[in-house]
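Justification of resources, computational component.

The compute hours requested in this renewal are based largely on the per-chain cost of generating structure records like the one below. Each record pairs the submitted sequence with a full structure-token output. That output is archived, and it is also reused by downstream analysis tasks.
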Amino acid sequence: MCGIRPIKPTIFYSNTTSAPVVVAPEKLTLSPNPTTGLVNLNLTPASRLSVLNTQGQPVTPDRLGDQAINLGHLPAGVYYIQVVDEDRQVKMGTIVKQ
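The structure output for this chain reads:
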């Protein structure tokens, strides 16, 4: 698999029960891919965006509703973009930073 690990589902906890709600992430469209810096997204204003490394660790602070994110400061490699919208629906995408 070329060193890329599969993305695990995100687990949310309901406000009314302690039972987890497992959500299989939907695919997120990112462009351009691969990129040298700026990545375009199509998000709602209330969406929370996270950039994760291949170990699932955040590499940038969470952001709200950005339509683009600059990855130019990150080293070359594979990153995951996770977006959680206002309905707690998760979308994931993989981006290659050159």
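Confidence is low (pLDDT under 50) at residues 18-22. The two ends are 19 Å apart (CA to CA).
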